Every structure is written in C-alpha cells, then in structure tokens.
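Continuing the batch. This is chain 6 of the set; chains 1 through 5 are on the previous pages. Same settings as before, nothing changed between runs. Recording input and output for traceability.
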Amino acid sequence: MSKIALFKELTHHRALAEKRSMMHGRNKSARIILGISVAFIILYLLMISILLALSVDSHHIDQSASFIVGIFPFILACDFFVRFVAQQTPSQLVKPYLLMPIQKQLCIDTFVARSLINWSNLIWLILIVPYTFITMIARLYFLEAVAVIFFYWVLILFSSQLYLICRTLINKNMLAWILPAVFFALLFLPFCLKGHFDFDQFKTFYGYLGETLIHGNVLSWIIVLFVLALSIQIDRKLQLKSVMDEICKSSSQKKSTYQSKSNKLGTSKGLLNLFLRLEYISIRRNKNIRKLFLSGMVVVLLFCILCSFTNIYANSYSRVFWCIYSFVIIGCMILSRLMCYEGNYIDILMVRKESILTLLKAKYYFYSILLFFPFLLMLLPVIKGQWPFGMVLSCMIFTMGFQYCLIFQTAVYNKYTIPLNEKLISSNGIEKNYYQIIINFAAMLIPPAIIILLSHIFNEETAFWIISAIGLAGIATHNIWLKNIYQRLMKRKYKNIEGFRTSRG
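Output for chain 6:
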C-alpha cells in the first residue's frame, strides 16, 4: 500500500471512529453552543486583527511586518498550550494498528502528516490575514503579505510538532515539562535584555526577522524552513521510539510497576499524586471539562491582547474587574461544578476514608498552579503599561487564597451529576443550583468592589497589599477551610449521593 493510499485509508478510519462513537450526535445543544463559540472566537480574532492593523503606521511596510512578526512568541506560546487540551499524539493514535501488516514508521508518518494538514492549523490566520490585507495588500504589497502569512503558517506547523514532541516526553516523565519551560524562557528572553521588561526591545529584536523575511532574505527563509523540517524529523523518530518502547515492555516490568504504584497508593501522598494526575487526565480526555478549560484560556488571551493594544478598559474599576475576571474565570467555569463531574464515580470515592478531602486538596493545588497560565498571559498588558504588575500579582494571590475558598463551598451543595463527555449543558437541574449561581456572582463582583473601596480609603498600592495579605492568609489556612468543607459535605453525603445517582444518564 502506497503512502497516499494509506493516508486516505487511515483518515477514513478516523472519521468512522468519530461517527461510531457512542457520544457522536447525542447532544445537539452542545454542538450548537460549540458552533456559537467558534463563531465568537472568529469574530474576536477579526476584531483584534483590525485593532492591531489600526495601531501601526501602515505607510511603512517594514514597520507593519516587523510588528506582526515581532509578536509571534505570544501566538506560538498560546497555540502550544491550547493543544494540550485538544490534540492527541501519533503514538496514541497508532496503537490500534500495531498488529496489522503495516509498516510502523509509515503509519506514524501518516498521522504526523495529518497533524500538519489539520484545519485547526489555519485558525490563527484569521488574525493574520485581515491584518496583512489592511496594512499591506491594500497598499499593493502582495508579495510581502504572502511572506508574512506563509511565515505564520510555518510557525503554527512548527508549534504542532513542538507540542507532539513535548507531549510524548511528558507522558513518559513529568520532568519533561522542563523542555517547553526552557524553550519559552529563551524565546521571551529579549524582554529582559535591558535588565527590566521592555516590550519595545522585544518587538525590535523579533521585528528584524519580519523585515528580512518580507525582503526575501534567502538565509532567513532557509533557517525558518530548516527548523520546521528538523522538528518534523525529530517528531517522527520520537513517535516511533515511543511505540516501540510500548511494544517491548515486558510483563514483569508491568507487574513490578503496578505493584509499586499500588504500594504508593497506600499513603496519603500517593493518593494525592493520583488525584493530581486525575485532574490533568480529566482536562485532557473529557470533552466537557476540556472545552470549558479551553474556552477560559482563549477568553483570557483575547482579553489580554485587547487590553494591551487599546484603551477600552483603561479606568481603574475596569482594570481591576477584568484582572480578577481573568484569574477566576476557570474557577467559575470548572470549580463551581465541584463534585458534579465526580458524581459519575462518587461511590468509588466513598470507599476510602477521607479520599474526598484528598481530592479537594488535589483540586486546590492543581487549579492554583493553573493560575500561572493567565498570570503569564497578563504580563502582556503589564509590559505595555496598561496594568500595574502589583495588581496582577495581588489579584492572583487573592484568587488563590480568598476566591477559591469561596468557590470551593459549592462542593457542599452540588448534588447533580454532569456527564464527562455526552453533554455540554446538563438537563438535570444543575442550572437551578442557586448556591452555585450566588457564589459565582460573589466571586466575580465582590472582590473588585473591595479593591475599589480600599483604594478610595487608602490608595491603590495599599489596597493591593491588603488583598495580597488576605490571599496569603487563605493560602496558609487552606488545610483548615478544606477540612471544614469536607466535614460539612460528609454531613450531607447521603442526600448528595442520592442526587448524584438519580441524575445520572
């Protein structure tokens, strides 16, 4: 079978696998919501593209190209991390074909090729194409516009290969997170060349690449294409090695690994690690949680870009409100449904004493760590001088210590099971949980009001110090208030378990 024929056949298999899935077509409302969300994202990207185009001097083609190419590290970082909740590796997809008479490398090459021509790789062009049309094509710079668009297309293809490489290594060892951390640290290093955050220096550093590309510098294009080709080759070899390692595992190794893991689960630390891993797997594999997480991160990114390059939300209350909103949005979307997803397997959680308490701790640690992602995104408006750094840092600490304490209270009162994959919106009454609605509104509206009030009584800097102190107090006492939530939940456990069981299916 030729490569082209195999590619067509495996593509057909993947399409059939999705159609034959038990979850396919079960929820029309979810597909409608997803379609509306995609349309919203497209409109948002178009709006940001137009705002970026209007913010630069389109009379100078070098400035237009250097600006849009100069911000590519932000787009690359966003694309890379978004893929963690939406894309599988070829080594995962190739496993059903291991026993078939197909050359393994050829099969992996097919899935690598599919990752390169996937339609999702074109989403970022919605941001780039209108920008180039306004600043370049409208002034008859056709070749320059094509060069910028082609560069971003190659960049996203590189991002897909970088993701596959890192994801495969991370699946084997969590220490592999060091690789993307070092890569992006080096990528954003020009921020600090002068000893402090300097966006102009950063833009100038990478903007030179844009100027060389649009002027047809052969060496620049050779380097860009070589990096893409090298990443593809590394990905091919790594995926093959991953598959071969999976095949060559001996049964004795599997048995000893299983026994060691079973022994570790006998300790509270082992159970905590298990629940932490469960949170990561839940976001990665379960459609509903993954969509909520992805939606929250995209909203934060788009809003940070909007606030960085416009003065729409320049007043003090708007800045505080949207900074708080950017940190708490994922908590309101996912943590406010605390125990609802676990309602699918609540009986198993009740088998071991205090496993619910360990689960609550794992969720708190996991989602506290996730706050660093919006924190990194919000450095963009800080660098642009729109937001003070102290506000962003204090709001993150306040969210971690105070707002999470507030949102975690929903664990006591949630008693309706939400399907992990089948439905985006529950029809079992979860929308009628007034405790959840009230707590979400309180987490969104009360903190900005507190900060504004403190700013009027004292000053803005003092207000940030006060909310940081409140947040640190909540972090320091998290074991106490989590245990209080657990004890109150156990008093209602029979009522909640009955609600979880009756609302399944």
